[in-house]
Design a protein that fits this description.
It comes from Nyctibius bracteatus (Rufous potoo). Residues 1-33, 46-165, 198-340 form the MAM domain. It holds the Pfam family MAM. The protein has 359 residues and is an all-beta fold. 1% of the residues lie in helices and 33% in strands. Strands 9, 11, 12, 14, 17 and 18 form a 6-stranded antiparallel β-sheet that branches. A 4-stranded antiparallel β-sheet has the order 1-2-8-4, with no helix packed on it. The longest helix has 5 residues, at 187-191. It is flat. The model is unreliable at 33-38 and 343-354 (pLDDT under 50).
Length: 359
Amino acid sequence: YHFQVIFEVAFNSAKGGYVALDDISFSPVYCSNQTGMRTPFNPSDAGCNFEEDLCNFYQDHKDGPGWSRVKVKRNVYRAGDHTTGFGYYLLANTKFTPQPEYIGRLYGPTLPGNLQFCLRFYYALYGFFKMSGTLAVYIFEENHVVQEKIWSVLDSPKGVVFVSWCKSFWDCGLVALDDVSLSLGSCQAADLLLPNPGECTFEKDECVFTQKKRGRGSWHRRRDPTPTSYTGPKGDHTTGVGYYMYIEASNMVYGQRAYLVSRSLRGTSGKQCLTFFYHMYGAGTGLLSVYLKKEVLPPGGFIKSCILPLQIIFEAIRGVSVRSDTAIDDVLFQAGPCLEVEEIQFTSGYPDSLNEIEY
């Protein structure tokens, strides 16, 4: 329903006084200190990346084996989980279930019924002759008695349960699920917010990164080896045949700087983890630095329960030699502390270095 917000000022003295008001803003983003709510609902509690456990999701084991947490080693044929490529995701393997009409349900936590939510998740399907109905999302109400389907594979997207369905032994396959997230407000409203940095492999474009001025002394998006011999990567880190960003030292002078700056991004509370791969091989290699730029409040400014936007800046400085190209690839920025990186299988087959920046 439509409503109005009214600010009322009243003075209880004949001498009067003054009240100052400034910078009123509205946002569909969740505010943690909701006035009047004894137990505020935090949408992040209804999401999960399945790295450590099922979070607040659970299964009814009478449905069968259901969803399992698995991980695979990332290589050129397998991308790994969606979060990092090296972590866990959920897998429903219906191929070897003995019973037909197999259904595996994953129940989400109970949600307040008087709020609007935007649900996002990543999935993958393999080995199904018919995709329709293979993966579906329902809303359960009144102790799981009433249910409403809100999404299914090949349908237009419109307490949540994910359903993996196998019609027969021969009409089965694998269903993978990862990075379930919930936010307040409509998905259309959420899309209008500042973007999350997420992941950028530079395969299609430069993602959220921009440059104030382009020219010989700037970052370039490239595939295959760099023009100057004995420097630069032989291929990108993602697949070995894709794109990466680099500076061409032969076009620059010693000490010249090139900046790759992200657009203004949504800030979040708590720790963040920035992961990227870089290549700095060659005579007289320069310097690669990463900066975090946060917006500053104006004098007298005041923000409560809101997180200031931020920017990520990659700065490359040309070294003393023309063979001092610097390249970066596979930038990943996500909420939470950096996880311990286990044995990494480099898909490009060339020496790389992994950087983690935690703050």
